[in-house]
Amino acid sequence: MPSSLRSIRSSSSVGTTATSETTDTAITSSSSGSSGLLSRLSRTFSRSPVTVQIENKKDYYCVGDCLSGTVTIAPTRDQSFSGVFVSLEGLAKTINDRATGRLNVTSNFLKMSDAIPAADFPSPRVFLAGQSYSYKFSFVLPEYLLDTECRQFASHRQLPPSLGDPLLSNVKDCAPDMARITYRVVCRVLYAKQDGQRRGVAFSSETPITVVAAYMPDLSTLPHHHYKNQEVSVIDGFTRFYRTSKTLKKGFLGRSSAASGTIGLEASILKPFVYQTQDSAPMLLSLSYQADDSSKEIEPPKIESITARLKVFTYYTSDPLTYVPTPDSRQIDPLLGLYSESYMLGNSSCSTSREDGKSPWVKESRLHYSYNSTIELNLPNNRVLPPNFWCCLVGRQYEAEVTVKFSGNGGNSVSLRMPIEITISKIADEVLRQSLAQDSGSARDETGPDDPVLDTVDAWAAPQNTTSSSAATTDAASDISAAPTGARRQAWSVRCERTISDTQSCQNFTLGTLPAAVLAL
Question: In terms of DSSP bridges, do strands 79-80 and 336-348 run parallel, antiparallel, or are they unpaired?
Fold first, then answer.
């Protein structure tokens, strides 16, 4: 039986116990004597005779990955023991400051144990000084935690990615000290105490690993319902178009002849960002200006700049979350902590003026103007941002704040906010596949039945859970997966075109220029 199925301890009971003990420790002042302090210092600075060596080392591990290696025990003194246990453990730790003091909470949400067979131990059970003993271990990262981890939210039973691990100091993931998700491979050598009822730890050692778990996007876990004065249209299981509007009053344009009207802003990010890659994501943006009925025509406001900023939100709490929080939740939940950072995602200033000196606005009618643009967005290259996730104690979410500034007195602007996803390439490919599969023939109307690019795209988008021996389907899937700068880009282009052509909410976008714009990213 695989070790991953041998023993997965109940996450709920483990986490509850750890939280209770940590809480008691946090609110009780330390009063240990000098002997206890010296004992702890001795254990801290003594070198453990146990080493944990991971054989299939990776930068990070995903759900379903196998993690194998060897533990080596080389004691400097004879040590009797009762057993050797290797475990893969996941811990969530949070720190919250309350009026009654600081509260530290720890949840052991994952503990997979691999017990070394008794037949592999020396007889009698004594590790001799100067000898070396090696034992193999193997784990498979589960896709989900036990149901007892959280019975209210399925997203809390998903494996959270590593966050703020102090032993991985080279990873800058925008995590505060108050929230951590860590994974360790731990080896413990146990011995029987004199009373025969308890076992102590003779030696132990651990090594950190990075886990990057990602799942298909779930709109119910995205905290976008808190955006005021905004509307959202969901086109398929992933694509969302956000829109907002702002009423302009006379004088907004800095001229006494300016008439009042309404500025509308609509935007969508059509693909997720991929973890630890430099792949950009196209943001489609549309502006509309509707002037009030007037006896004379007026020009729309001059666009000064378009910017998109990334906001990184880390939520943490001392009590398990029973709702999907937002940045405003702290006003009603004193147990919720929030840490945020902000970075530039992309901007556009040159696109707001044309080479011929004419306004970039397109005149639709006497009182209606429109402006469309595609802007390239890039994650900060000096940060390693894990995928979005929620668990009972910690959450990480991202949003893009898009702001369009207009020239004139007062620095007027219009802005909207959009939740965005960071995922791994496997999930991004599946998002693309499912989106294309929803309308596998819509692009045939313009290209005809014998388009080799669309043959490849549609074959790749076809359901993959069949046992068909079609070489064309297999080749198409491998072609796109292996050619991110070729067929994959064309697939995203086709997907973007189909998405926009299928929704009336995006009728202002210039579809003819979209494929070239996407392929250029």
Answer: unpaired
Write out the H or E segment, with its range, that includes residue 104. strand 101-115
CB-based burial label for 79 (10 Å; 0-12, 13-18, 19+): middle
What residues are paired with 339 via a beta bridge? 314
Closest of 127, 3, 1 to residue 69, by C-alpha: 3
Residue ranges of the alpha helices (H) in 11-136? 11-27, 34-45
DSSP per residue, 368-425: EEEEEEEEEE---TT--PPPPEE-SSEEEEEEEEEEEEESSTT--EEEEEEEE-EE-H
The token pair that represents 322 in the structure block: 């029973």
**CATH number attached to the domain at 3-209:** 2.60.40.640
Among left, alpha and beta (phi > 0; psi -120 to 50; other), residue 350 is alpha
Count H helices and E strands in the chain, helices first.
Answer: 9, 22
Question: pTM value?
Answer: 0.77
Nearest to 132 by CA among 52, 48, 76, 205: 76
Q: What is the location of CATH 2.60.40.640 in the chain?
A: 3-209
pLDDT (0 to 100) of residue 342? 96
Structure tokens at 31: 């009063």
Nearest to 223 by CA among 335, 340, 325: 325
Residue 440 near residue 456 (C-beta atoms within 8 A): no
- How far the first Cα of the chain sits from its last, in Å, is 48
Q: What element of type H or E holds 268?
A: strand 261-269
Q: Tokens 């990776």 map to which residue?
A: 58
pLDDT digits (tens, 9 = 90+) for 72-95: 999 999 999 999 999 999 999 999
Cα Rg of the chain (Å, integer): 29
The answer to whether the beta carbons of residues 203 and 48 sit under 8 Å apart is yes
Asked if 102 and 95 count as a contact pair (C-beta separation under 8 A), the reply is yes
Name the residue type at position 371: Y
Contact yes or no for 406/303 (Cβ under 8 A): yes
